[in-house]
Amino acid sequence: MADSPPTSRIARTRRFGGLVAGQGLRWAGTRAANALRSDEAADVATGERAAATARELVKQLGQMRGAAMKIGQVLSTVEFTAIPESEREEFKTTLASLRDDVPPLPFKAIERLLKEELDMPVSEAFADFEPEAFAAASIGQVHRATTKDGKAVAVKVQYPGIAEATETDLRNMQMLFPLIRRLAPGLDVDALAGELRERISEELDYEVEAQHHRAMERGWRGHPFVFIPPVNTTLSRRRVLVTEYMAGRRFDVVKALPDEDRDRFGEIVFRFFFGTLNHLRRAAGDPHPGNYLYLEDGRVGFLDFGLMRVVDADYLASERVLAQAITRNDAPAVKAQLASLGYLPRPDDFDADALLGQLRMLAEWYLEPGHRRLSSAYVAQMIEEGSSPRSPYFAQMRRQTVPPQALLIRRMESLVLATLGDVRAAADWHALGAEYWEDAPPSTPLGEQDAAFWAR
Predict the structure, then answer these.
(1) How many CB atoms lie within 10 A of CB 456?
(2) In the chain, what are the domain boundaries?
(3) Is 293 helix (H, G, I), strand (E, B) or coil?
(4) Integer Cα distance of 72 and 59 in angstroms
(5) Which residues does residue 302 pair with via DSSP β-bridges, in sequence order?
(6) What are phi and psi of 187, to 5 degrees?
(7) pTM for this structure?
(8) What's the pLDDT tens digit per position in 100-142?
(9) CA–CA separation, 336 vs 295, rounded Å?
């Protein structure tokens, strides 16, 4: 078990400030020494300093729960072009895994919070409550319980004091900007910060998450292969979220299943996230495989809708137009859409054909027609090609940015791809995707069931 996370405003501010000040001095030392080095040696030294900064950033963010860890998770989707290529992927993977290694707090540490939120002792609210948490993340942990009417439920409880700690982290986030700018020179950190503040502030309020969860459950209710457990509104509170308990095969078990089962699972994951975006205009920012369960009846159950954005209809329509332009190799239209969506800070600095080439390379897995079995090695290759200084598009990628409305969309796409590669799923991903951005007819039996559901 872990000790309570540090919640003192002074202690958390000191952690951020110490990181920035220490790394700032080291960067100054590197710049001074570079004045006496050859250009090649200076580039190597700068890369080494960037890598050291990245490792320290991961270490510090990983030691704190709350927004600090959430910031690290979201940063895992950013291309840190200043970090040497040999270390960049490891850095991003470590950031993305911050949520996986959080030890739960002892039950005594959260029992008082439960009593305060429920206005009664736990024993009065539930017929049975397992004190050992079966899952833990950056903001809260989950326990299994049984309600007074005999229903099995999952009880998500926010860590005591984490809301105050997170508010402090969000205020202190601007101290990280100088480091992040050095690691990702092309990133619009102000836009990133605004999106993080809004999304993480919502995630702290489980009543907001419950609203997202209920909207998702209503949207997918009765679907033939997707299941979202209903929220127990009677027992849910601002810091407590209670949902129906799901029993199913976890991701590690799914990865060992035969090809047919893994392919079905992968197609459902793809259809769930792209369908949620297309039909409900919701970008789910945390498509982590720990939030999926392969149910015995063949459906896949999905959890955790705290990090979510409702995308403007006009913006989503423009993203669809962009995908269509890429598919038909219309370079001028691609550039025009990227500019209007906010990806190109200075549109005149970009060549239309180069932009089309870059996007076709990055989205090859679902833009190139044909049956393709994904793998972790393929995903790693795609990421390397998309961030390597050897890429012909590297210079232009450094001058681009990710607009706030697209941040969770791009995070969703990258984590869904990583999941499909990890589970080694196969499909004609282009045909599946075309159903969502071009309204193409269903390409699989699951697609026919899905289309019939949404046509209701």
Answers:
(1) 5
(2) 9-100+168-202, 249-456
(3) strand
(4) 10
(5) 292
(6) -80, 135
(7) 0.76
(8) 556 788 999 899 999 999 999 999 999 999 999 988 877 889 9
(9) 44
